[in-house]
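Entry 0007
Protein: Acetylcholine receptor subunit alpha-L1
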Amino acid sequence: MKAFITAFALCFVAVLGAPDLKNLPDLNVDNTLTDAAAAEAEDLTETLKASLSQGNVDDRTRLVADLMSGYNKGVNPDDVAVQFGINLLDFTVRENSNALDSYVWLKIVWQDDRLKWNGDEYGGVQVLRVDSTTLWKPDVTLYNSADPVNMVNCWDSNMLVWSSGKVMFVPPCKMTSRCKFDLKRNPYGEQKCSLKFGSWTFDGNAMDLQFYNKTQSIDLTELNDSTGFEVLSTVAERNVRTYSCCPDPYIDLTFNMTIRRLPGDELFNKF
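Output (structure tokens):
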């Protein structure tokens, strides 16, 4: 729904022209909004404003050249805080191998002060779409992967970079997680699966991992309803752990999902 609203708003801007930014509705001043809803409204407002401030190709070319001069994608930002969330699109239960295939959009946001700029010096440019292979990005991966070689397979989509240094990366991904099912003895019973994410190399002192928009659940707004299973609930927790390998704490975000087979689904699978 949010994607539809954003697309509609951007089309509206393209057709009717750029309105005065001062007259944009203030989406943030509503005390009845939850923190998550307010944060989403802020993101939408930022996207709308940025869509009106693209500059031209010469401005963007000069800006990218200046930003990349001396930039090293192999070096992480200082004390970086990363917001992380999941939008579930579809999933497949692999009963015989106790695994769950998930198709998702990951939502990853962080601050990189090396990417700040003054829009007035670049024709008013406020946002860039940048090849994700050219910038540093968090090495967040799936800890409980059933495929330890290809833990998360993602398309390297562009990143959005704002003049404030804020970076947003929303790649579409496929992943396979371990999940123990009990469908033979309890075909219509509740099944519980989890997706456990964390940085592979950065401890909690170097990279603080938090929930995207403070939302401790999986976003199901784009979920396909033809999976043969229904999602009863999702809840997520943030854990800080110390492992035997290393003295520093590591953070994981674990998304727990309760699913149940729809009546009759197992009959269709036999034919």
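Curator remark: The chain has a mean pLDDT of 84. The chain has one domain: 61-261.
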